[in-house]
Amino acid sequence: MTNGETFHTLPGSSQFPTTRWTLVVAAGDPHQKEARSALVSLCENYWYPLYAYLRRRGYPTDQAQDLTQEFFVRVLEGRYLDRADPEKGRFRSFILTSLKFFVADEEDRHRARKRGGGVLVPLEFSSGEERYQREPAHDETPERIFERRWALSVLDRVVERLRNEFVQHGRPEHFERLKMFLLGPSDAPYSALAREMNTSEGALKVAIHRLRKRYRELFRQEIADTVADPAEVESELRFLAAVLSKK
């Protein structure tokens, strides 16, 4: 990049599959390949809040892993999807309610499936337990743990989508330098960073503005993927913001 070069507007597309709530409902149909792919993507990205919920309910590590894995195996087999009504609620609420039904069923039957059997979704349980051990030690309810981990998973998902857009366009180093500005002001001086990136301070500020704008767009898209009605996006945004603001 030459000195004074401006940054280009970020692309509006993403390489991630569409994961609309209506597709989650359709995932119960084995002929809906796109819908099933969407559901797999949601499971891979949002399993940890459910695992943390089970751990906070008191299940030991091995049993929480068994239950989480078996639950997603059943969801991917189409079970519980008959309870997913696109006219009601959000995927966040549906998936937790479905887990509660599943756990109650398992407790009634007094059985658990051996971990690893029938695995359909690769879940990183080792890293998940490490993350859980860093959870706050104070007495939070399982539901509260789930909500906070869900909100943070949404943020992580959005950041990853944004990073992939930079990678796709051959500019991963730009993202690594600018990501500190995503959630608010940074202590890094604009002038020093502009010199480091061999551009003007004005061009840098424009790039940061565009980065934040694209981040907000992707955040809204991610929320829209998990609600039944576009009109619910704003309320879900407010809910997640409130969850993250609680100490």
Report on this structure.
With 247 residues, this protein is mainly α. It has one domain. It contains ten helices and no strands. The protein has helices at 21-26, 33-56, 61-76, 91-109, 125-133, 142-168, 172-178, 190-196, 201-224, 233-245. It is elongated.
Q: Major sheet, described briefly?
A: none
Q: From the alpha-carbon coordinates, what is the Rg to the nearest angstrom?
A: 20 Å
Average pLDDT, all residues:
78
Strand content: under 5%
What helical percentage do the residues reach?
55-70%
The stretches of 5 or more residues where confidence is low (pLDDT under 50) are 1-19, 111-119
Instruction: Give me the number of helical elements.
Output: 10
Give the distance, in angstroms, between the N- and C-terminal Cα atoms. Answer: 43 Å
Number of domains: 1
Shape: elongated
- Compute the number of strand runs: 0
Structural class by secondary-structure content? mainly alpha
